[in-house]
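Help needed: design a sequence for this.
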């Protein structure tokens, strides 16, 4: 087994969950939580603090935390201290980028 591909295998969660999440997002989440636009009923405006467009950032952040925890479990296989620090820095930066990319790609569509 290739050690380099094994160290970053947990990042496959992002693309594997993207299409199923899009389907659930369009059919269920936006319908249930609303689309974020204010609704005027009987002269008063109703503001929602949390809506369907806020949910992707929460969901992908949870996935990012899961990826970081999986990476911490793989950290025991790295011997050198500087390699461990470098690996975790790469993991955190890449996870942060992917969380922002996947959460805002749903807002753009």
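Sure. Designed sequence:
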């Amino acid at each position: 087994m290739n050690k380099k591909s094994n160290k970053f295998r947990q990042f496959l969660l992002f693309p594997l969950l993207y299409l199923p999440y899009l389907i659930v997002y369009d059919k269920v989440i936006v319908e249930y939580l609303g689309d974020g636009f204010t609704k005027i009923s009987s002269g008063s405006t109703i503001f929602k603090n949390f809506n369907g467009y806020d949910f992707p950032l929460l969901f992908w952040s949870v996935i990012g935390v899961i990826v970081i925890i999986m990476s911490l479990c793989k950290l025991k296989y790295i011997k050198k201290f500087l390699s461990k620090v470098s690996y975790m820095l790469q993991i955190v930066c890449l996870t942060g980028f992917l969380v922002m990319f996947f959460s805002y790609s749903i807002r753009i569509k």
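Residues 81-108 form the longest helix (28 residues).
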